[in-house]
Automatic annotation (TrEMBL):
Gene3D superfamilies: P-loop containing nucleotide triphosphate hydrolases
Superkingdom classification of source: Eukaryota
Sequence ranges of Basic and acidic residues compositional bias: 7-20
Positions of the UniProt region annotated as Disordered: 1-146, 477-502
Pfam families for the chain: PIF1, Pif1_2B_dom
DNA-binding feature ranges: 577-596
Family: Belongs to the helicase family. PIF1 subfamily.
Functional note: DNA-dependent ATPase and 5'-3' DNA helicase required for the maintenance of both mitochondrial and nuclear genome stability.
Protein name: ATP-dependent DNA helicase PIF1
InterPro entries named in the record: AAA+_ATPase (IPR003593), DNA_helicase_pif1-like_DEAD (IPR010285), P-loop_NTPase (IPR027417), Pif1-like_2B_dom (IPR049163), PIF1_helicase (IPR051055), PIF1_RRM3_pfh1 (IPR048293)
Record field: catalytic activity: ATP + H2O = ADP + phosphate + H(+)
Domain AAA+ ATPase as annotated: residue spans: 172-330
Length: 623
């Protein structure tokens, strides 16, 4: 299991309901900014100190729970020898205990904790709502999950019939575009396509170029931006001028000549004019008449989500409106099988929202989602915001209300790109450069681990531990899934020690909510990197695979699957934002929507018309 050590325990009788009272500020945001976060923490503390008053912390502690006796659910856990890398407490990222700027900091923070009944009823909001609470439906109570002893298997990828057909088209050398509504497995399929293409061209490092329109999307698939691949900078010059510029850069020129497959993700944010320029540049660089010089293209994205950014007064142009789009793309395919949502009513509501054709029945159902949701396990929803500064503020205020052990984790960054370019790449990583954590902080896992711990899994920090002391617990009832041959539990795990401001390295132990129960794991660092097609690392970051999860930006939530979501639609301002935000949820029971207004469901008419022309594939498994 990458970067995690699991301890099986029964938490069914140990739900902590003393969740800190939500923020009173109305906030939104994009990415974790350390200075903004600390500013919010300090402001939150000062405000509470002025108001006076304090409440007590939860009396129950996870550390006081005894392990249950061995049951007949499975065989006794085997005693295993820890890998050498785990014996060391080293970490390439520096961690420190967070030092308060004044002696009054702890007393200020303690005033944020409310009584258990009040906390449960209020934890779903991070600020005053513009909806009248008296007009809301009664709250929904979601029962706490029971502990499960079921064995956890490594995640296995299963493709649907239509996904398999698209994968085969790519293997056959076809240039394709595929799309689908949120939750249809576009990202899963793309990862399988990338693996298949790397296998097909295993002897040529630069044959497969993995790119995306934005830095965030590129990082998510282990690629680079389309601008970086092409070597065009901002790309404002003509195709001929850009080709002359590229020839002067040996690396960029080599990429164009050696690439056999060009993969472009999040094409919805690629401007049509840029697409035509790239097609012509490929022809010029490779001295061939075909667009892109005959390179096979695999293009994906959802044009119903966030659109291209228009420059100046020029009218925005989608990639499918490009002059050479139809000449380049041989097949334009629509995925139809939805995996994220199991409730067909919810799927239908989202599809109506996607096309901007909401029925009165769906409108009433969305409005009914304004009710509060009380989660009995103590974890609240992730609130999605359009702007990053408000995400930072919301998470910061919540952090300021936590009392007790807290720590700061500094990332270790590397890479061969120039300083400015590397900084831009690093800013797009989900993992922050500085991560502030505290006991009781609500966090989200940002790496896939196995079938139950996945990117988007929610949990709560229960303590920080020294791995040397934790070792005895691990040997008794933990499992290291990557430890069968004495290998380290994480590729990005502890390596050569670096400077540390504390004598003993302490890792967070997180109680994750998983299907059918809870799992407690000690989280260790992972590595993210951006590579050129030839394998050269442009930027890398080693950090804990966690982020604070009270709030998250809509932009960064793209591609995420979240069990608990809260959205205030009064704040959305861009076409596609409302659809992206609401479609992150897996079910209606885990979705709270404030100020639903059908006028906020904004769809580009030309996208709606064009989408109806896409080809769907026959499900051979059902045929």
């Amino acid at each position: 299991m990458s970067g995690l050590a699991t301890v099986k325990r029964d938490f069914s009788s140990n739900t902590d309901k003393n969740e800190p009272e939500p923020s009173s500020s109305r906030t939104t945001g994009k990415r974790m900014d350390s200075s903004a976060l600390m500013k919010a923490i300090m402001e939150g503390c000062a405000s509470r100190d002025a108001n006076g008053g304090s409440t007590s912390m939860a009396s129950a502690s996870l550390l006081s729970q005894k392990r249950p006796p061995q049951t007949a659910v499975g065989p006794p856990a085997k005693r295993r020898t820890l890998p050498d890398s785990f014996q060391s407490s080293s970490y390439r990222a520096t961690t420190t205990s967070t030092k308060p700027p004044s002696s009054s900091y702890s007393s200020q923070r303690s005033s944020a904790l409310s009584s258990s009944s009040a906390a449960n009823s209020s934890q779903t909001s991070s600020g005053p709502s513009t909806s009248s609470s008296s007009s809301r439906p009664p709250p929904l109570v979601v029962s706490a999950a029971q502990s499960s002893k079921a064995a956890v298997k490594p995640a296995t990828i299963f493709l649907s019939s239509e996904q398999k057909q698209i994968l085969q088209l790519v293997k056959d050398g076809k240039s394709i575009f595929y799309t689908g509504s949120a939750g249809t497995g576009k990202s899963v399929l793309l990862r399988e396509i990338i693996k298949a293409m790397h296998k097909k061209y295993a002897k040529s490092l630069e044959a497969v170029a993995v790119t995306a329109s934005t830095g965030i999307a590129a990082c998510n698939i282990g690629g680079i931006t389309i601008h970086s691949f092409a070597g065009i900078g901002l790309g404002i010059e003509s195709a001929e001028e850009l080709a002359t510029k590229i020839r002067k850069n040996k690396k960029s020129s080599s990429r164009w000549l050696r690439t056999k497959v060009l993969i472009i993700d999040e094409v919805s944010m690629v401007d049509g004019e840029l697409f035509d320029k790239l097609a012509r540049i490929g022809s010029i660089m490779r001295k061939r008449t075909e667009p892109f010089g005959g390179i096979q293209l695999v293009i994906t994205g959802d044009f119903f989500q966030l659109p291209p950014v228009s420059k100046g007064n020029r009218q925005m142009k989608f990639a499918f409106e490009a002059q050479l789009w139809n000449q380049v793309v041989e097949r334009k395919l629509m995925l139809t099988k939805v995996f994220r949502q199991k409730d067909q009513d919810f799927v239908d509501m989202l599809n109506e929202m996607r096309f901007g054709t909401l029925s009165q029945k769906s409108i009433q159902k969305f409005k009914a989602l304004s009710r509060d949701i009380i989660y009995e396990d103590g974890l609240g929803p992730t609130e999605l915001f359009p702007r990053r500064e408000d995400v930072d503020s919301s998470n910061g205020v919540r952090m300021s209300r936590l009392r007790g052990n807290n720590r700061t984790f500094y990332a270790k960054d590397g890479g061969n790109a120039g300083e400015d370019q590397r900084k831009r790449l690093l800013d797009n990583f989900m993992a922050p450069d500085v991560l502030y954590l505290a006991v009781d902080a609500q966090v989200m896992l940002i790496k896939n681990v196995d079938e139950t711990l996945v990117n988007g899994s929610m949990g709560r920090i229960v303590r920080f531990v020294d791995p040397q002391k934790y070792k005895d617990e691990v040997l008794e009832d933990a499992t290291f899934t990557n430890d069968k041959e004495g290998k380290p539990a994480s590729k990005g795990g502890p390596t050569k020690p670096s400077s540390s401001k504390v004598d003993v390295q302490m890792w967070p132990v997180v109680e994750f909510t998983v299907p059918g129960g809870k799992r407690e794991v000690m989280v260790m660092p992972e590595t993210w990197k951006v590579e050129l097609p030839n394998g050269e690392v442009q930027a890398s970051r080693q950090q804990l695979p966690l982020i604070l999860a009270w709030a998250m930006s809509i932009h960064k939530s793209q591609g995420q699957t979240l069990d608990r979501v809260k959205v205030d639609l009064a704040r959305v301002f861009e076409k596609g934002q409302a659809y992206v935000a609401l479609s992150r949820a897996t079910s209606l029971d885990g979705l709270q929507v404030l100020n639903f207004n059908p006028d906020k469901v904004l769809v580009h008419e030309k996208v709606r018309a064009w989408a109806r022309t896409l080809e769907t594939l026959v499900d051979k498994e059902d045929a």
